[in-house]
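DM from R.C. (forwarded with permission)

"hey, sorry to bug you on a friday — could you get me a structure for this? deadline for the figure draft is monday and I only need the backbone to look sensible"
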Amino acid sequence: KALFSDLGVKGLTHNDTQTFDDVGLLQGCKDVRLVRIRVWTDTYVKGIQAIYETSDAGMIAAPIRINNDLDRSKLKFQEISLTEENESEGIHGHHGDILDHVIFVTNQGREIRLGESDGGGPFEIEIPPGMCVGALKGGYGG
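My reply, with the result:
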């Protein structure tokens, strides 16, 4: 059974922010790992989807978290893959009222940046040694 530690939420929320927490989607699953992250951006991060691998339920795709009134065809789509040899050991970036950019740092020293803006203030989430990113949580559309 997966053990999830809440590493906190970064950023602001608004009246129209829709929150999400993928832990509920993965409750009861064994050996959960985040294996792919799909992100839609323009200057800012506009949408995200996580795909998880479990030892008992196979692959589980979270819903796409994006504001419905955005035209996805006008956004840049990026997908990053994480393997056991190339896991995320840290997440940092900048945010203000929205997510300006996010950087996933892998245990191989690779930094994967999503979003172009350098506005807002910095944030950092450290993944404790021996742990991996198991589930995403946050808000969108606000």
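R.C.: lifesaver. The helical segments are 23-26.
me: no worries. The chain has one helix and eleven strands.
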